[in-house]
Amino acid sequence: MSETFIPRIQELAKCARMLALVGASIKLRSDSSVLPAIREQIELGARMALGEVLDEVDEEQMSLALVMVEMALSEAGELFRSPDRGSNWEVVDAAAMQAMGRSSKSVFTRIQSIAETDPKLRETFQGTFLDVGTGVAGIALEAARCCPNLKVDGIDIWEPALDLARQNIAESPYADRVTVRNLDISALDETDRYSLAWLPTMFLKRPIVEAALDRIARASVSNAYLVAGVYTRPEDPFLALMANLRTLRSGGEISDPADLKAMMEARGYVDIGMSATPIATFVVGRLS
Ligand SMILES: C[S@@+](CC[C@H](N)C(=O)[O-])C[C@H]1O[C@@H](n2cnc3c(N)ncnc32)[C@H](O)[C@@H]1O
What is the CA(169)–ligand 1 centre distance, in A? Predict the structure, then answer.
């Protein structure tokens, strides 16, 4: 019998609860409806978890932290409930799909912040944006909200997500600029249409990514940008393992951004840059 096993589990369980408390405390910053006694305990717990640093955090860090907490907790919960799940996207739970849509909104926030120092990328916000794997249209609607002149085409192959996307679009003020349709990216058959495209390679097998890059390049206007995402593989060996597992369970295969860069260069993309956060690395290129 081990003396250290249960104490170690207790330590890990404490960390999980601390993370949940930090997330709860960030959420409650914009919610006044909670009982004061409960708020007080949550605030106290978050302070125990984070200490003084909490006083130095700005709004941008808070919203990144909330995305990171939401992702860690939902990933951890899903992994624990369904360790036997394969790598398909056939999620039927509407709440889970909507949560993924909410957390993926930050993709467009990041594209916008990259554009702050890249005027050619900013110009693409006047054209048409292709959102590959649009899901419930979280990124598509965020793009329309941030860029009043941008039109958005979302494509996906999962009809239950597209049904929710259609509802979300109808309930939004952007129904005249955002459309979604059931289409596999490897069958995209447009030419000269898109000024900007988002390709989440973490959900796609390598041959689909290869086909997608061909199709997107053909469907794009000149000087169009492509932003391709992979999960960031951190230095820490445990976190690197989690990133690989996440890519595999998401249906993806590519985990090295340098691979993507080479694939984009082969299709005529230039000025290729990388932008990394702890969650995802964006490979950003312009079609010459
Ligand atoms: C993480 S979800 C996207 C979440 C989305 N951004 C949102 O706001 O809901 C990834 C999506 O990629 C879609 N997908 C997977 N393979 C695809 C393919 N070959 N062509 C188009 N979409 C695909 C899946 O059906 C899934 O809905």
Answer: 16
Q: What is the pLDDT of residues 174-212, one digit of tens each?
A: 999 999 999 999 999 999 999 999 999 999 999 999 999
CA of residue 14 to ligand 1 center, whole Å: 34
Say yes or no: 125 and 212 in one domain. Answer: yes
> 135 CB under 6 A from ligand 1?
yes
Measure the CA–CA gap between 194 and 130, rounded to whole angstroms.
6
Encoding tokens for residue 153? 């085409």
Give the domain range for residue 249: 94-287
What does pTM read for this prediction? 0.83
Ligand 1 and 154: CB distance under 6 A = no
Same domain, 200 and 277: yes
For ligand 1, the distance from its centroid to the CA atom of residue 100, given in whole angstroms, is 10
Position in ligand 1 atom list of the atom nearest CA 185: 20
Spell out the residues 6+ positions from residue 283 whose beta carbon is closer than 8 angstroms to its own: 227, 228, 229, 230, 257, 260, 261, 264, 272, 273, 274
pLDDT band at 54 (very low <50, low <70, confident <90, very high): confident
